[in-house]
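pasting input
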Amino acid sequence: MKSFRKEIWLNIPTRRAFVNLTPQVEAALEESGIREGLLLVNAMHISASVFINDDESGLHHDFEVFLERLAPHEPIRQYRHNDTGEDNADAHIKRQIMGRDVVVAVSGGKLDFGPWEQIFYGEFDGRRKKRVLVKIIGE
Amino acid sequence: MKSFRKEIWLNIPTRRAFVNLTPQVEAALEESGIREGLLLVNAMHISASVFINDDESGLHHDFEVFLERLAPHEPIRQYRHNDTGEDNADAHIKRQIMGRDVVVAVSGGKLDFGPWEQIFYGEFDGRRKKRVLVKIIGE
Amino acid sequence: MKSFRKEIWLNIPTRRAFVNLTPQVEAALEESGIREGLLLVNAMHISASVFINDDESGLHHDFEVFLERLAPHEPIRQYRHNDTGEDNADAHIKRQIMGRDVVVAVSGGKLDFGPWEQIFYGEFDGRRKKRVLVKIIGE
């Protein structure tokens, strides 16, 4: 069994954004040399998500509206987490809705994807350096 | 290490439905011959889910009501994704809430499940052929 | 390839609670002797979650308020699942929002975590014995 580990660093200039990580994950898979196995991609921060959906800006706008409706950033004072001096309770909740990690099959050395699957980083409390972990096991 | 891959094809006649995939996943596991490992089941389409919950029709009705309340199909024009000519923005959001994939332990050649765990396909934009991927690694 | 399996039993005295499982998962990983691989932690019950987020009591309060707003326990009669004699339809929905399982990279014999990642059990229908499964594969 082989294993491979790679970190992807991001520094999103806005509080919230969606970034397509698929090219970087594909590069990590190629670098690993693994042909058959499982690939994990996860946010290493608890106010960010990794998820798989469509690379379409209208949909990303819809996600943003949906998440702000369910867990609005303001008023800050509505969340007890923010009593600690933070202002990112909404980001922790948004990350929970969108998910922390995805597991992807590796078949024939490729991400074993349907036609529209793309891997996204969802930032909900940006403007600082954060990491995503890619871990691959197989052979 | 062994690996095994199988696609399950579905063609749901309605826009939305929940389908129990457990027998087909168990058949794939048996076919694989893998006794210890991890099994991934994921929707290969971004307007569908794979999740684990109860095989009880009342609960499926409750999920349907819950999801329609959070991300209603209509009015179509409320979603920017639908400006592309699609009408399935709600399906992308519903899939995100219910999840894309599940990872199941394989122990002694069986799905290592609690008493009520069953694997479901959640269709949110049906009436066409779609696929679920089963990938198993182990030995 | 090595594999390792361990159950963690819980008996939460209240209907709902969040419990930090990280020390028990770390102990299972150490017991396994696995240095590189993937670790799955999942609820074996369909009215409970396993998820990764912050160990901060204010945030857990915010999660509780958020989940009760989205899928309130009462009135019991609003859910068709509860027509079966159950009163836990809300717990099945809450578990779906928070997730069933997490997959964690194992690197150098440790959980490959960012600075604040902690593994939680989310109980939504407690006051009885329930189980969490830890399955690790690697070498």
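fyi The longest helix of chain C spans residues 57-70.
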